[in-house]
Amino acid sequence: AVLAAGAGAAALLVALRGDPALAKRVGELEVEAAEKTSSAFVFIKPHAVTEDVKGLVKKELAAAGIVVKSEGAIPAETIDKQQLIDTHYGA
User: Fold this and answer.
1) Which terminus of the chain, N or C, has fewer Cβ atoms within 10 Å?
2) For the segment 33-61, what is each residue's pLDDT rounded down to a tens digit?
3) Separation between Cα atoms, residue 30 and residue 34, nearest integer Å
4) CA separation (Å) from 38 to 41, 69, 88?
5) How many CB atoms sit inside 10 A of residue 74's CB?
């Protein structure tokens, strides 16, 4: 693997720009890294929880390349007790 920084990284990017195999591999590595480090809750407001809305959310997330690992309901008491919203938003 090649590790470059600063001006070297810029030069490497210019030299390899347009290489479809490189673009594909970089995309794969970005997804791999994100899977290890990124996760999120997606909250649907209680009044909006319908099958249509849930389907729309899944469709839009999938279109953005986001994989839904699990889904379900979390009771308000659990959200409050575990401060899930505060933690999620970094409060």
Assistant:
1) N
2) 777 766 777 888 889 999 999 999 999 99
3) 6
4) 11, 12, 12
5) 12
